[in-house]
Design brief:
Elements (H helix, E strand, L loop, with lengths): L8 H13 L3 H14 L4 H13 L3 H14 L4 H13 L3 H14 L4 H13 L3 H14 L4 H13 L3 H14 L4 H13 L3 H14 L4 H13 L3 H14 L4 H11 L7 H16 L19 E7 L6 H11 L6 E7 L6 H9 L2 E4 L5 H10 L4 E4 L6
Parallel strand pairs: 1-2, 1-4, 2-3
Helix pairs in contact: 1-2, 2-3, 3-4, 4-5, 5-6, 5-7, 6-7, 7-8, 7-9, 8-9, 9-10, 9-11, 10-11, 11-12, 11-13, 12-13, 13-14, 13-15, 14-15, 15-16
Length: about 375
């Protein structure tokens, strides 16, 4: 127990750090807290306690400690790095990137900071910047396996499948047991229509990591594409067992129902209601007052939200509606989650009075932006599609 630790604050900190290294996290936390009760500005204790709490998933609590540590030690790279990692987990991506960049400025060869910055940029849909950042890692460590996998993902998002495959195959040549690389390679082969190969690759990933929900979802996608519906359902259900909040896997399962003659309209609707209970119901909360002026003479602002303002089947359905709005009576505002824009995206932009790029924007920030934009009618154009 930590009550037996005696000595100066530095001695207590060293004892706490030793317990931390030994994975005695509860004892280490108690010791760090003892230090902070007497020395609330001990930035190393703040940093280490914040790390333990962040690893436990209590990111809001951890951020307060890590942020305080970075303020107290502005010229030390590590607090900015860990602060940025915590912001990433909180979904505050722009702030996370700023914190990572500060860490790199202080320690220009910090591989972890470049890697985490590249990951944040990918999550924001800034794939060109992410590729440049991941390559900074590989210049310093050509065998950094997580970077090879994430660089492959960013290149794939930019349409460079050949480059993506080269990165993933390089990772597998260095570490054949890297499940993430097998899974990512499977996803690319499925995009290319090489369904049997994709199925074999993701099964290899599952041999290595049977607990990874994303691999079960990829397997479901491959089996569904091959028309092996019963097996695809099993894969999706397993993904949801492993990660009950896995919205994408459940949505893909609902899509599959549309192609299964065994499903009736009633059973399809039952699954959609289950999705609502699993996903949408947990997002319900107080609805802020609608403050738009009730002037019958003014133009209405209609907002459309989707990641399908691109060459996608759904775009052929809602595209004519947008093109034929009466511009004297309606303003069209688009909230686009498109990661890689194409010619169809540019056409939608021309139809919009206002265009908002929402990749990497949190739900809360997007809701606030919609309120600031004065939207009268908001339409969610995204359905259960791939």
């Amino acid at each position: 127990m930590t009550e037996g630790i005696v000595g100066t604050v530095d001695e207590v900190f060293r004892a706490a750090a030793e317990m931390h290294r030994a994975d005695r996290l509860e004892d280490a936390s108690d010791a760090y807290r003892r230090i902070l009760r007497e020395h609330p500005d001990h930035f190393r204790a703040l940093l280490m306690l914040g790390t333990i709490i962040m690893d436990a998933g209590r990111n809001g609590e951890a951020f307060e400690l890590l942020d305080r540590s970075a303020v107290l030690a502005p010229q030390w790279s590590l607090p900015h790095l860990l602060r940025g990692q915590c912001l990433h987990r909180l979904g505050r991506l722009e702030e996370a990137a700023e914190s990572m960049r500060r860490s790199i400025t202080l320690e220009p060869n910090h591989v972890d900071a470049y890697f985490l910055l590249g990951t944040v940029l990918s999550d924001r849909g800034l794939f060109t910047e992410a590729v440049d950042t991941f390559r900074q890692v590989l210049r310093r460590n050509p065998s950094h396996l997580p970077t090879l996998v994430n660089l492959g993902g960013a290149l794939d998002a930019l349409g460079d499948q050949e480059g993506a495959v080269a990165c993933l195959e390089r990772a597998l040549s260095l570490e054949p047991g890297m499940a993430e690389a097998w899974g990512a390679l499977s996803g690319i082969r499925l995009q290319q229509g090489r369904v049997d190969e994709a199925t074999a690759l993701v099964r290899r990933a599952l041999e290595l990591r049977p607990d990874m929900a994303v691999f079960h979802m990829t397997l479901g996608n491959a089996l569904g594409t091959a028309g092996r519906l019963d097996e695809a359902y099993t894969a999706y259900r397993r993904a949801l067992e492993l990660r009950p909040e896995y919205d994408e896997a459940h949505s893909n399962l609902i899509l599959l129902n549309n192609f299964d003659p065994a499903h009736t309209a009633q059973s399809q609707q039952t699954e959609r209601r289950a999705w609502y209970q699993r996903v949408a119901a947990r997002l319900k909360g107080p609805i802020p007052a609608h403050t738009n002026p009730p002037d019958p003479e003014r133009r209405l602002r209609v907002g459309y939200v989707t990641a399908d303002f691109r060459n996608h089947s759904a775009a052929f359905l809602f595209g004519p509606v947008m093109r034929h709005h009466d511009r004297d009576r309606f303003e069209v505002v688009c909230y686009s989650g498109v990661m890689i824009e194409d010619a169809m995206t540019r056409g939608f932009k021309e139809q919009a009075s206002l265009w908002r790029h929402t990749v990497g924007v949190s739900d809360e920030d997007m809701a606030e932006q919609i309120r600031r934009d004065g939207i009268d009618i908001l339409v969610d154009l995204s359905g259960h599609t791939i």
